[in-house]
Write a structure and sequence with these properties.
Layout: E1 9-18, E2 21-31, E3 36-40, H1 47-54, E4 62-67, E5 70-72, H2 77-82, E6 85-88, H3 100-104, E7 111-112, E8 121-122, H4 124-137, H5 154-168, E9 172-176, H6 184-199, E10 204-207, H7 211-217, E11 220-225, E12 228-234, H8 240-248
Parallel strand pairs: 3-10, 3-11, 6-9, 9-10
Antiparallel strand pairs: 1-2, 1-4, 4-5, 7-8, 11-12
């Protein structure tokens, strides 16, 4: 990991209440440069809520978010993306009736200027070229980037979603259960992608129920239980059995 005085992104004392339901309570989390952080916990532990707060989809009831040591406030995912934060959700959020390149540039389409700089039209050629470059950078093999995403396998679709995140996520990538619906071979491909992302200097927050995969990939593991952080440990200082014990409450919390 690269040494740095401050984390790329940090949540301090993050709490989120939905009426009387406490989803998160005083959660501290920090992601440093070149780091893969595994975020694990049982269903309802607050993992997805935390990701939604860091990505601007939800506002915390209390607490603060910092990027590079400076406090930020996100009122929408667009504001978070403008700071270089990209999120890959389990449902991928791909438009299956559009091509691979169109999905990578979805909402950020390149345009050629029209007469006198007015109007204009989509620069499909340039988007194809740049989309291919992004896929090659991550060693993603897709035969034809003009293919519709509905024709791709689950692993290939996930790769497109990751490539889009990397193309625009210049600071940090948040991944919420990226391998949940994939087979063993396709899970391995996504794991390789996550390592490739880290090679490009972009830290990753990985949420997954696949504990062996998290333990293999992560530099550090954060465990949530009932909205509280009960463990925040380096990978080499924990075993899968330890993680299970923290998740279930069988082990004492560890800072």
């Amino acid at each position: 990991m690269t040494s740095s005085a401050v984390p790329v992104i940090e949540g301090r004392k993050i709490s989120k209440h939905f009426g009387k339901v406490v989803a998160l309570e005083n959660v501290d989390i920090a992601i440093w440069p070149d780091e893969i952080v595994g975020l694990v916990g049982d269903n309802g532990a607050g993992k997805s809520t935390l990701v939604q707060i860091l990505s601007g989809s939800l506002s915390p009831s209390s607490g603060e978010i910092y990027m590079d040591g400076q406090r930020v406030v996100f009122h929408s995912p667009i504001e978070a993306r403008s700071k270089g934060i990209e999120t890959v959700y389990q449902d991928l959020s791909l438009a299956l009736d559009l091509s691979v390149s169109a999905n990578i540039f979805l909402g950020r389409e390149l345009k050629r200027k029209g007469i006198l700089g007015m109007f204009g039209w989509l620069d499909q050629r340039q988007m194809n070229v740049k989309a291919k470059e992004e896929l090659e950078k991550l060693k993603i093999t897709i035969g034809d980037i003009t293919s519709l995403c509905e024709s791709l396998s689950g692993g290939q679709r996930q790769a497109v979603a990751v490539a889009r995140a990397i193309a625009w996520g210049t600071r940090v990538v948040l991944m919420d259960e990226p391998t949940a619906a994939l087979g063993v071979e396709e899970q391995k491909k996504v794991a390789d992608l996550i390592l490739e992302v880290r090679k490009h200097g972009i830290p990753v927050l990985l949420i997954s129920h696949n504990l062996p995969q998290v333990h293999a990939l992560a530099d550090r593991i954060v465990v949530l239980r009932r909205g509280h952080v009960v463990a925040n440990v380096k990978k080499e200082d924990s075993t899968i059995e330890d993680i299970v014990a923290w998740i279930t409450g069988a082990a004492q919390a560890v800072a």
